[in-house]
Amino acid sequence: MGKFKGKFTPGPWECSNDFEIIDAHGFPIASVHSICIKSGWQQLGITHWAEAPNRAYIERSDDEVRANQKLISAAPEMYEALKKVLEVYDPDPAVIPIRKILRKAGGE
Fold this sequence. Notes:
about 110 residues; alpha+beta; three-stranded antiparallel sheet; two-stranded antiparallel ribbon; 4 helices
């Protein structure tokens, strides 16, 4: 089971008041934005907003941005919890999705 080792910044991570996720020392890890620019907007049926061709935007509510921020900040704890589940239930086929998630999250 020790083969899963994340390449990410160790937790715990917390939410700051300005939509950032910060590490245990208060340094920013990531930001969650309320306005997102997207290429390929025509295929998604989104109204064009920007002057640049093939760009569009969507504005997210503060509640949605905060929920995304909380989900991201919980990632290290979820990673560790999934590793523990795998320790108990591996090699049960039911944990195959957990192995895939840990590999994806760990940068493998």
